[in-house]
Automatic annotation (TrEMBL):
This is Putative transporter add1 major facilitator superfamily. InterPro entries: MFS_trans_sf. The chain crosses the membrane at residues 6-27, 72-97, 109-128, 199-222, 228-252. It is a multi-pass membrane protein. Keywords: Membrane, Transmembrane, Transmembrane helix. GO terms for cellular component: membrane. One of its GO terms (molecular function) is transmembrane transporter activity. It is found in: Membrane.
């Protein structure tokens, strides 16, 4: 598309897509509110208030049966490590590939990213649901596979010295997006129904924090380390994935007998009881 048009046109198309998504959310999706109409509006928290942050923190940190508070904290820690790995992919890949010795151009980079995103998306939309359905894959195992995939992909990419080597990277990263839905699934089975929004909001906040600080970290790390090892940032991000790998391995061992699709009532006292290994 870039060959037949301009950067402005491409960004305009992307802007239109986002605008359509926003209008769809605002118009087609109805908001459900637990507050009765005509209630006291003064009692509702405003948009710009720390009460939302406090509610998220209380949801994550409150005492729970069967060690679920520890499980929630571990899942959020695994998610944070995973998001830093994603930040390395986002902020380092273009700089790494266009620098010496590879010297890629924008067309090569776009093709590589397109292949990588297509494979990851196909695995997420096809392979993961089929694995849950027919292979009985558990959430911790899916998260473990996703963390291993991202870690190996980052490790390999940092060692690439030729274009041929780089084109094999999507083979390692193909399952890297499995971790996010597995974490959300496990959180939804641990917290009560009326706490899911707060738990997911905390996860989204951690993602924003990791991507913001990751941009500062990896964009600052590359100039400082490129003189002796250009792939250092990728190797550092791959090392962070060990945190997620260990956590998912622990949860897989501990929760492997738990029901994958147990329902949790809105009452916070009715928590899912998991069978200890």
């Amino acid at each position: 598309m870039l060959k037949s048009t301009t950067y402005e046109a491409i960004f305009l198309v992307e802007l239109v897509i986002y605008a359509v998504a926003v209008f769809y959310v605002l118009i087609a999706i109805k908001e459900k509110s637990g507050v009765q109409e005509g209630g006291d509006l003064a009692g509702r928290p405003g948009l710009f208030t720390f009460r939302h942050v406090v509610d998220m923190a209380l949801t994550v940190c409150r005492a729970r049966d069967n060690g679920h508070r520890q499980h929630i904290l571990l899942l959020l820690l695994a998610a944070t490590a995973m998001f830093y790995g994603l930040a390395a992919q986002i902020y380092l890949t273009y700089t790494f590939l266009t620098d010496e010795p590879l010297r890629w151009n924008a067309t090569q980079y776009s093709f590589f990213q397109g292949v990588n995103i297509a494979l990851e998306g196909a695995a997420l939309l096809v392979i993961l649901p089929l694995s849950y359905r027919f292979l009985g894959m558990s959430d911790p195992l899916a998260g473990l596979l996703g963390s291993l995939s991202r870690g190996l992909g980052l490790l390999y990419l940092g060692l690439c010295s030729t274009s041929t080597m780089v084109y094999f990277t999507p083979m390692f990263l193909v399952f890297s997006e499995f971790a996010t839905p597995s974490i959300r699934s496990m959180l939804s089975k641990i917290v009560a129904a009326d706490e899911k929004g707060k738990a997911f909001a905390m996860m989204s906040a951690l993602q924003s924090f990791a991507l913001f600080t990751g941009s500062l970290l990896f964009n600052g790390l590359y100039p400082a380390t490129s003189k002796f090892f250009k792939g250092f940032g990728f190797e550092f991000a791959a090392a962070l994935q060990l945190i997620s790998i260990v956590i998912f391995g622990y949860l897989y061992h501990k929760l492997r007998k738990a029901s994958l699709y147990a329902e949790i009532d809105g009452d916070t006292s009715n928590l899912q009881t998991e069978i200890e290994s």
